[in-house]
Design brief:
The chain has about 170 residues and is mainly alpha-helical. Helices cover about 85% and strands about 0% of the residues.
């Protein structure tokens, strides 16, 4: 890249690392919690025993497509981090100042942390939602809307990261 710009390149690499790493961690956590709750509920229904007999309630297992909607929604978090990382690394050839490097670093950090915390929220809520849906299928769409709102938190972080990154580019022109 540019000569004498090692600090700026390091900041861009740090922003890329935070963007991809933290959103992937949040997405992985959400997928793990939701999938493990689904597996637990599948095992409880398959056993067809104790809990149903004691509570008097029939357990409900959603269709295959409905089971994967929360997991697909959780995996979109890591895509946000990847998009921001591509945008940040595209700036390597046009770096002119340390301010641009810091802006890229913080843009990646904003996207990464918003993806991480959205993933934690999706995982914690999604695991409880799976258990509630197994007893009352009417809760599925309500729970799905809450997961969409949690996804929107990561989308807002992506938008803020894009604004931070684009403002540094405008100031350097």
């Amino acid at each position: 890249a540019n000569q004498g710009m090692e600090g700026e390149v390091a900041l861009i690499c740090g922003g890329t690392l935070l963007s991809i790493g933290l959103t992937a961690a949040g997405s992985g956590y959400a997928i793990y919690k939701i999938a493990s709750a689904q597996a637990q509920e599948y095992g409880a229904e398959r056993d067809n025993g104790g809990e149903q007999l004691l509570s008097g309630r029939k357990m409900y297992l959603p269709s295959f497509a409905k089971q994967f909607l929360p997991i697909i929604l959780s995996s979109v978090l890591s895509i946000y981090g990847l998009i921001m990382a591509v945008i940040i690394t595209s700036r390597l050839q046009s770096l002119t100042s340390m301010e641009e490097g810091w802006a890229c670093f913080f843009a990646g950090a904003v996207v990464g942390f918003s993806g991480l915390f959205a993933g934690i929220g999706m995982g914690r809520y999604g695991a409880h939602a799976v258990k509630a849906i197994s007893f009352n299928p009417a809760y599925f769409w309500r729970s799905f809307i809450v997961l969409v709102y949690l996804e929107a938190l990561a989308l807002y972080g992506m938008i803020i990261g894009l604004i931070i990154e684009s403002q540094s580019f405008v100031k350097s022109q």
